[in-house]
Amino acid sequence: MSDFRWGLGHLSLDFVATLGARRGNPVERLGAPEDLAEWLTTAGLLGGTGPSAIPTDAQLDDARLLREATYRVLTAGRLGAAPSADDVDLINRYARGAVAALQIGPGLRVVRLATDPVAVAVTELARASVELLTGAELSRVRQCDGCSLLFLDRSRPGQRRWCSMGSCGNRRKTSRYRAKRDGVAEVPRRRPGVRLPME
Ligand SMILES: [Zn+2]
């Protein structure tokens, strides 16, 4: 599955968004190691496409654990609550994981050597979480009124309600406009004669 969501303002938030619809029936977009490989590659954290770059099942578990701990600590941090010590420990542990060795390559280009590129990518994700959770931008993390994804509000007033005007913001505006035009409340309309299961 490749309907990943990008552009939420921070790598960590794009990562957290790989579990969609948290308020309803969550959608797991990292269902298989190949999904994680695709996400990491698109994020620029995984370079090659050789066999060594496909995560193991254990690494997929690692990534999901890191993601969920990040989400919970983000939520606590946004609301001014104390985060779980276990979650903080888990993120810190991954942030101490494998790193790439920087080497000078041909033409003075940097070469990143890693025996386990996926482990390095997970470390970099954990470091991104540390950076977001301990930085000033934490106070700018919002939850979208439409899709419930977390996003970074970099606008000057800091009062954004939607992850993007192009998707959630526009949908809401359009439904409000239609409701106003038709003189009806903003509720889903159904065809006459169609009975809902609960009726
Ligand atoms: Zn949204």
Describe this protein's structure.
- The protein is mainly α and 199 residues long.
- The chain has a single domain, classed as Jann2411-like fold.
- The chain is 43% helix and 9% strand.
- The protein contains six helices and six strands; from the N terminus they run H-E-E-H-H-H-E-E-H-E-E-H.
- The protein has a two-stranded antiparallel ribbon. Strands 3-4 form a two-stranded antiparallel sheet.
- Strand 3 and strand 4 form a beta hairpin.
- Helix 3 crosses helix 4.
- The longest helix has 23 residues.
- It is globular.
- The protein starts with 10 loop residues before the first helix and ends in a 17-residue tail after the last helix.
- The C terminus is likely disordered.
- The structure holds zinc ion.
- The site of zinc ion has 7 residues, from loops.
